[in-house]
Amino acid sequence: MSAASSLAAQIALIEKKRAVLLGLTQLVISLERLHASLEAVLLLGGNRQQLTEAELRSVEIIRQRVASLSDTELRAAVLNLDGLVSDSLLNLSRLALQLVDDPLVRLDQLESIHPQVNTFNRNARTAIALRALLAKRGEVVAALHLPLPRLAIQQRLQQVDAREQVIRQRVVEHINEMRCDIAQVLNNPECSAAQRTMYEVLDQSLADNLAHIQAGLSLSELPVMIEDIEVVEADHMAVQESQPVDVPDAPKLTPDAGSPGLVRRVRDWLNAPWNSGSWRR
Predict the structure, then answer these.
(1) Residue 199: domain span
(2) Under a CB-based contact definition with an 8 Å cutoff, are residues 268 and 254 in contact?
(3) pLDDT of residue 133
(4) 52, 180, 183, 212: most buried by Cβ count inside 10 Å?
């Protein structure tokens, strides 16, 4: 095989592995979100003393946003959110088993799962924060009556955590393999200067991601998201640094005509993911 043919084969292999890495990364992100959701459910069935410092800090954020609401209105919001969480818990448990037991979950399936998990997580975390806020006002709201036994939820949580750790390790191994493949490309005499620059940048991106993962951080916050990594021939790269990048506006929920006034008034806060800046300020 000529050096040129070898280079083309090496590049094709890297692209194939990038696609596999993307699927593994998305699976870990789904498991991370399921983990957070199941933890939130256990908190809803517990008490305020179980909240972490980060969750207690979020209470101050929402306190400022709903300060004008009465205790009665906040209670109504908690009951509304409890109903949403309770109605969705069985489906969430099913999703957890699907992700834990099915090693062949497709990327398009993960894309359909993410919105469901995100919505559940947001509702559960909001209910936690509102309960804690009412507790600060001296009002006690009964714990959510879970439609599943706590032991069953804890078992799902342990299964999700174990599966997440296994896949995270596979991601680490896959990144290391890709970096070895990139080293072969860089050592190929047919690798042009432009290609060399591109693959050196790619290798550094993978190295940054690897350090992030090995530090135990979330794959949803990788320094360079895998879907943003392109593996293409240098001659076919269309670099347009001078063109501005359009950043779409953040999506906003449209208030339902029949939804309670309180839900509409906290809608913006509900839109913020649990790990966003608005929760961590």
Answers:
(1) 3-232
(2) no
(3) 85
(4) 212
